[in-house]
Amino acid sequence: MRPFDETCRAPSWFESGNRKPREQPERMKKSAQGSGRRASPRNTGRIAAASQLTVLITGFGPFPGAPFNPTSALVAKLANLKRPTFAGLRRVAHVFRTSYAAVDAELPELIERHRPDVVLMFGLASCTKFLRLETRACNTRSWLLADAIGAVPAQRGIASGAPSTLRGRAPFAALRTAVSRRVPLRLSHNAGRYLCNYLYWRAAESKGPSAPRLVVFVHVPNAPRRSKPTTARARAPTASDLVRAGAAMLGVLVAAARRR
């Protein structure tokens, strides 16, 4: 309602000297009040359930050459982090055994059961000192690298007849801006040829009513559990840095999913 000022003409009942307008008929009152009725607890619960977002956050266990994988602890931290932005957010954490068989068996079941709106995946890239935000998955696997159970792919490609790459579904520019304020991060256009890339491809290719709206993969460095004193300007992110970066990414993805 606009505030009364000299540009607003007073209603006729005011000009005529009456102190208040005529009473409305009872049925009009009920009609006017109908739109303001409170929803019953049962209806409120249904509305909340329908509007609740679900995020699947995944990491990997150890693999040959990497006896410690920081992504296992990272996804557990992000799943339990308390932030106002995450109020009402349903978070599902899952750590894959680093094997092709585990991804094939568990990812479809996780998506079907939880129907996540967002899938945020993490993997280890021990050769870097910064986060790599992967923009696409490649339709390729390495014949030279065995997984954690010793299995090697029988064929080089992931999906025959499919394109050479699949682009992730995420606001990459916004993610980069949010994370770069906290830890070093670079955009990457090649997720590699190992399990990280394979998981990314399988998540990105998912279709159907349970398919996630947003899918993104992030490579993290082998972060030390504690920060070591250093005078170097650039240092490898610590485990705490990874949690802060992951929380920033999660916030951006949740906001983007709510706008869709």
Describe what you observe in this structure.
This protein has 260 residues and is an alpha/beta fold. It has eight helices and eight strands; from the N terminus they run αααβαβαββββαβαβα. The chain has a six-stranded mixed beta sheet with strand order 2-1-3-8-4-7, sandwiched between helices. A two-stranded antiparallel sheet has the order 5-6. α5 (100-114) packs parallel to α7 and α6 runs antiparallel to α8 (239-259). It is globular.
Q: Given the C-alpha coordinates, what overall shape results? A: globular
Mean residue pLDDT: 83
Instruction: Note the gap between the termini.
Output: 31 Å
CATH architecture: 3-Layer(aba) Sandwich
Spatial strand sequence of the major β-sheet:
2-1-3-8-4-7
As a percent range, the share of strand residues is: 15-25%
Taken together, the total number of domains comes to 1
Q: What is the N-to-C succession of helices and strands?
A: HHHEHEHEEEEHEHEH
- The name CATH uses for the topology is Aminopeptidase
- Major β-sheet, in short? 6 strands, mixed
Instruction: Provide the gyration radius in Å.
Output: 26 Å
Indicate the percent of residues in helices.
Answer: 25-40%
β-strand number: 8
**What is the H level of CATH, i.e. the homologous superfamily?**
Peptidase C15, pyroglutamyl peptidase I-like
Q: In terms of per-residue confidence, which ranges show pLDDT below 50 for 5 or more consecutive residues? A: 1-22, 27-50
